Amino acid sequence: MTDLSARDAAVEAFRLRLDQSKPRVEAMLDTLLAPTPSGGNDRRGRLLDAMRYSVLLGGKRLRPFLLIETARALGVGDDGPLRAACAVELVHCYSLVHDDLPAMDDDDLRRGRPTTHRAFDEATAILAGDALLTLAFEVMADAPTHPDGSVRAALCAGLARASGHTGMAGGQMLDISAETATTPLERSEIARMQAMKTGALLQFSVEAGAMIASASSPRRDAFSQYGAAIGAAFQIADDLLDAESDAAALGKRAGKDGERNKATLVSILGANGARRELDRLVAEAQLAITEARLGEEGRFLCFAAKYVASRQN
Amino acid sequence: MTDLSARDAAVEAFRLRLDQSKPRVEAMLDTLLAPTPSGGNDRRGRLLDAMRYSVLLGGKRLRPFLLIETARALGVGDDGPLRAACAVELVHCYSLVHDDLPAMDDDDLRRGRPTTHRAFDEATAILAGDALLTLAFEVMADAPTHPDGSVRAALCAGLARASGHTGMAGGQMLDISAETATTPLERSEIARMQAMKTGALLQFSVEAGAMIASASSPRRDAFSQYGAAIGAAFQIADDLLDAESDAAALGKRAGKDGERNKATLVSILGANGARRELDRLVAEAQLAITEARLGEEGRFLCFAAKYVASRQN
């Protein structure tokens, strides 16, 4: 068996497991977004409709998977990690809704469907994003997520740090500012911007799984490193996809980074250089999983690193 | 002393105490929004600048006051309530930034200054609002807010419920939808919309103070009733102000409710009817404080009810 086919087999095994985990994640998201009994009001229904539209119509559910799989590899498999995973996914979905807005990336398509502000309107999309972000913290903070209130509070704080001005929102600001800046971003600045914009929430997904499972401090460090490498690899793969795909395969507008002269590592390193960087990050992620000493239980997290680097959409 | 001058004296005493509490609240907000040591990056600074602009340039700080004063009346006066109070204020400020956006209320002025999207730009204002909302949960969840993790988690959950689709964001959606609806809102619908849009966060401010101070269940119920009455009174006073003030006194565009044919209780009850409703709510709030049996310690919360009903801006 060549290296390539071993990689293909790992990616296939991962894809299967990711697909298997999706229905459980989506059933919980559906429950968390269910209309309240007292909410039988058409006017109020519009916001919930927009929230459901933004969350329930597709997505790889990679972040939930990473959280659930990390907790599972450490021996915790109940609904607690599932709820925390959904909280992270709600934050991810809110960020897509707001990033797609006319004032931001101005996108009409997302996963092959109209973006939320096109399907509803701009005000509704802003509010739906706000409400999804808010709901994420409600889900994370509520008792069924973890028996220990201190862990729930730590999960809330960690989710906030990964999502706010020191994380995702800060990264999006850097990304937007760079588009109109006179001096282009340097490589280190791009890496930092992407670590904030995409990496922080992916990394937190893994860290949250370890927090829920009360992992030891060395293991938590290893998971942090793994999450950081996965996050960086994910963004490079995304930029490669954008540079090389067409809209039909991508389900959203393609080639838009180049169109906007957006700085990515692909534009700095070239496609081949970016692929080498991807390989390095995959090796780094797998080394970190080895250091976490999960044995056989860690194999899907190893596969995840390969999957992230080789994904097609 | 007539009833009127007793009311004036109470309002004056309250105003003095509110002014006294402001510097402490604003110093903590300033600390929470301080640039991080590693954040010496001009590009990243823009988001924090917009967040600081949105939070630090004025405001009555009524919600923080209610939280701090409730906790104080119950014997807790350290930095915990102050931090929780700032978390609530961050949510309030985020909601103003997003409500002012062109797609929402489209306002150019707030507290006599350009709104955040006018002072910066729309994308920055959206992100600043997002990041303020996120920061609120980080502040609430972090250890210095309360020694008991379960209380911090409960505060996060309560803040989320008051702010999200079942609270403030849901109320704003109802309010916006009503502007373009063919059938006007009925009185009960307006009351519900306002209870969600404005009332929920004011009510939570009071409830959070009681949670932090581990108040007994009957006292917590009394504080809930007080908070709900204060919230409803606040909104009616706001609508009366909008109907009767000019922009110079208000620091924002006045008369805009009538301009947009926005349904308010003032438009349904008339100004005199609305004032009678205000008096009823003040009495209800004061009765609830009496039921909480705070004695002399509760007097500023009693005064707060009068202040809310009689405020001029």
What does this structure look like?
The first copy, chain A, is 74% helix and 1% strand. Chain A is mainly alpha-helical and 313 residues long. A two-stranded antiparallel ribbon of chain A has the order 1-2. In chain A, a hairpin with a 2-residue loop joins strand 1 (109-110) and strand 2. The model of chain A has no long low-confidence stretch (mean pLDDT 90). At the A-B interface, helix 2, helix 6, helix 7 and helix 8 of A face helix 2, helix 6, helix 7 and helix 8 of B.
Structure keywords:
313 residues; two-stranded antiparallel ribbon; globular; Farnesyl Diphosphate Synthase; 14 helices; homodimer; 2 strands; mainly alpha
